[in-house]
Amino acid sequence: MTTMGGTKLTDTFDFVVVGAGSGGCTVAGRLSEDSGTSVALLDAGGRNDTWRITTPFGLALPYSAANWAFDTVPQKGLNGRIGYQPRGKGLGGSSAINAMVYIRGHKRDYDHWASLGNVGWSYADVLPYFKRSENNTDFDGEYHGKGGPLHVNRLRTDNPIHDVFHQAAREAQFRICEDFNGEDHEGLGSYQATQHNGERWSAARAYVQAHMDKRANLRVETGAHATKILFEGSRAVGIEYVQGKQIRQLRARREVILASGAFQSPQLLMLSGIGDGDALRAHGIGVVHHLPGVGHNLQDHPDFVFVYASDYPHFVHASLGRLPSLLRAIQQYRRERRGLMTTNFAECGGFLKTRPDLDVPDIQLHFVIAMLDDHGRKKHKQAGFSCHVCLLRPKSRGSVWLKSADPLAAPMIDPNFLGEDDDLEALVAGFKTTRRLMETPALRALQKHDMFTANVKTDDDIRAILRERVDTVYHPVGTCKMGKDAMAVVDPALKVHGVDALRVVDASIMPTLIGGNTNAPTIMIGEKAADMIRGELR
């Protein structure tokens, strides 16, 4: 538990931001650039500035202090299994524990948002904010930025598996894509990552950590678990939170900004009396405003992982202590900030169409240089590799709701994976498309043993293994969706419908799931929100 920031401590600020993840760090960092604007940023976790966070290889090491480690309710579409939902806790949020893959999604995703009535959210509208955030070492021009706070570059692992993967793509007759964030992202290739000098570059490092001791107008509170939004009538005026054993408050002169993510932003709204009135009253919560869409519209990418044992020397052994080159890799990292310690594990991948008549790719691959079983929680004696395939635009919709009125209890989470038959059939096609890559000579040569799919032959076999093993690829969105319909939670300015001085600035505002990783889009949302807020202050 720490309090950080300028020397003048106050309990009243212009803006109080709840949640120091990708959206929260971005909007707090940008708003506090104006010395005349005071900002408080709260997060329930810690500083996240240890080597386990900053060293990319630390992703392979358990670190519960930075992970909420939520579970889902039993999933009907997954044979009643309970899924795992890791979410970042502490400064940087999920950008402090993710695989650092820098992807924006397809331009049609944002044009679709605009077509739903969200003026100002087309691809042409949001591209400047992607560019503003970005400092891309490898690309520039129409689609990329230089000089932004978020460092983006090619991986520095020097792993020859990239050449093998590209060869396999060619053998499977898939195109090679050099830049997944340019004009067209269809194809396979090597991912860029949010890293700098071989270190993880989270949203906290990009927007907040360098300023915490320099900006007197920025106060950062860690170990601060928000429990309630404070209202005077229908106006949000502050936040109540628990820090240690103390109940504290911070007041907001202008706005309260929620940025706690797709699970906890709707949870805090409901705890504070904003949501479906009947459901709130059932928990003894007084209704500030009946807003039935809060917690609904949950969307996530259902994901299946192929896993293979291998003797290839450039894959990571699940038992890290037995990795012969580990000590040498650490020494190289200390000297050069290169090599194995810089891996994000999901080094290659890309976007493919399962049918040629599709307008945009419908699946994404993440090729991982280790065997990944049950999110890495199940270990195996062999070294090996994995390949994720996820469905980019599922039809299934889930929800988040309160288990009780206890603000420290985890929310109830139902992604409803494979709840729609069309999602199952689309992922069957995705399985077949990915297996086509796995069966190329280049990748077959690396396979010692197929861990889970060797006996999967028919479509029914595929359906069975999908229901047995599909889970999240960590991209939940949509539970405070932006729009003007009856189930919308925020308007296109991200202001919560029906109340004043309250916004949501995180992935929960996405009306539909974008076709790709969600960290860069959430940072974009933070950039655009800060710009809209500053525009209103002028």
TrEMBL record:
Q: What general EC class does the enzyme of this chain belong to?
A: oxidoreductase
This entry's Enzyme Commission designation comes to 1.1.99.1
**What are the record keywords, sorted?**
FAD, Flavoprotein, Oxidoreductase
Q: Which GO terms describe its molecular function?
A: choline dehydrogenase activity; flavin adenine dinucleotide binding
The family database entries (Gene3D superfamilies) matched by this protein are listed as: FAD/NAD(P)-binding domain (3.50.50.60), Glucose Oxidase, domain 3 (3.30.560.10)
> So which cofactors does this thing need?
FAD
Question: Which InterPro entries did the record assign?
Answer: FAD/NAD-bd_sf, GMC_OxRdtase, GMC_OxRdtase_N, GMC_OxRtase_C
Source superkingdom = Bacteria
Q: Which residues form the Glucose-methanol-choline oxidoreductase N-terminal domain?
A: 88-111, 261-275
> Binding of FAD: at which residues?
98-101
Belongs to which family? Answer: Belongs to the GMC oxidoreductase family.
Known NCBIfam families for this protein? PRK02106.1
Q: In its UniProt entry, what is this protein called?
A: Choline dehydrogenase
State the organism named in the record.
Bradyrhizobium frederickii
